[in-house]
Write a structure and sequence with these properties.
Layout (H helix, E strand, L loop, with lengths): L15 E7 L2 E8 L6 E6 L9 H9 L5 E7 L1 H4 L8 H16 L5 E6 L1 H13 L3 E5 L14 H5 L5 E6 L16 E5 L16 H18 L2
Parallel strand pairs: 3-4, 3-5, 5-6, 6-7, 7-8
Antiparallel strand pairs: 1-2, 2-4
Helix pairs in contact: 1-6, 3-4
Length: 223
Amino acid sequence: MPPADPSPPTGPATPITETVATPAGEARITWHPAPGPRLVLAAGHGAGGGIEARDLRALAAELPRHGVSVALVEQPWRVAGKKVAPAPKTLDTAWRALWPALARPGLPVVAAGRSAGARVACRTAGELGAHAVLALSFPLHPPGRPERTRAPELLGTGVPTLVVQGGRDPFGRPEEFPEGPYEIVEVPHADHGFAVPKRAEPGQEEALARIAGSVVRWVASLG
């Protein structure tokens, strides 16, 4: 799949950071605003890392050029410097408390996230009125435990949903996903963090371009 369309000759806006109080502690939103935005894509990180993840960085760099403001959300545990994520219920509580800030621009909000953040987006999309869901590296099951499926979370979003999954993700390869009301894009050779082997073809830059390009085209189809 080719990368996204060429970008207009305007530089990216300076990111804007804000802190939001939640019942689980202070969370942080880093805004990457688009000029004349039509959507907001709010993306949470996983349980093993933060908003510096390569896929989140790629989306924050590309989507504002296509009319989508990107809000990268850091959960309170991460802001506090803790190394272990809390229970899913606590993650959901913080995400709900953040939602008014994400919706403040008055635009449709696409709930997004990678890994654990994707699960949060899926679980809360319906109640929060998300316009759609983007699930990056959705952890369909723990590694080596396919019987412990989390498919019901993905199948129950109730809104347009796109999954972007690495071809060798131990948390669920694309062919393991059940049929359902969602789209799925495979990133060949990529692991759970969308890293690809050095000698793989396509390579790392092409993998990130595939992620960004797929999301650009998908959000354009949302209307």
